[in-house]
């Protein structure tokens, strides 16, 4: 059973640019969550999607957005990048929204903003 | 806002020693997970505990959920270098939102 796939694994951007990250969940999983991980802030919840609808949203500015497609694949976008957006962005999939809380993570997309 | 506090933040021990990591909150959770994350990778699910007072064992790892479902502990017996990593706990509410602790970074020296 293939795991969660995130692309790209590494990317470097400059301030002001925008970035799109992609996540393909485990086959059959319909819920996708996104997290930002930094050394100082730990794992911070960005948002969760289920059946193409955003179900939960964390405390991030509107520059952070996401969407989910009918095949459960998800993308997140960060516009007008700031230095503080440098982080590991993790995608996690689960069977269904809010059932057990068990998350299966991808390896992450490491974003560096210069 | 539900907060999960993990302690200790850092732990460095010798191979063969025992250790316990704690995850505490003032909130009640419907379930709680423990994950281990190695450098450059995403967190990997270790266990889910659901019932207050529940104890689960995974080889040398023992997980306990507090009676009131507000706290949890992870005990590792005879730690090995392969146990090195970041240990994260995550509490879940019926609303379907997971809250993560800041993690415990464990280093096991051979």
What does this protein structure show overall?
The complex is a heterodimer of chains A (114) and B (110). By secondary structure, chain A is an all-beta fold. Chain A is 0% helix and 53% strand. In chain A, the strands form 2 sheets. In chain A, strands 2, 4, 5, 6, 9, 10 and 11 form a 7-stranded mixed beta sheet that branches. In chain A, strands 1-3-8-7 form a 4-stranded antiparallel beta sheet, with no helix packed on it. Chain B is globular. Helices cover 0% and strands 54% of the residues of chain B. The interface between A and B is medium-sized, with 23 and 26 residues.
Produce a short descriptive summary:
The complex is a heterodimer of chains A (114) and B (110). Chain A is mainly β and 114 residues long.
Any chance you could write out the topology, listing elements then pairs?
The complex is a heterodimer of chains A (114) and B (110).
Chain A: E1 5-7, E2 10-13, E3 19-24, E4 31-38, E5 42-50, E6 53-57, E7 64-68, E8 74-78, E9 87-94, E10 104-105, E11 109-113
Parallel strand pairs in A: 2-11
Antiparallel strand pairs in A: 1-3, 3-8, 4-5, 4-9, 5-6, 7-8, 9-10, 9-11
Chain B: E1 5-7, E2 10-14, E3 19-24, E4 31-37, E5 44-49, E6 55-58, E7 61-65, E8 71-76, E9 85-92, E10 98-100, E11 104-109
Parallel strand pairs in B: 2-11
Antiparallel strand pairs in B: 1-3, 3-8, 4-5, 4-9, 6-7, 7-8, 9-10, 9-11
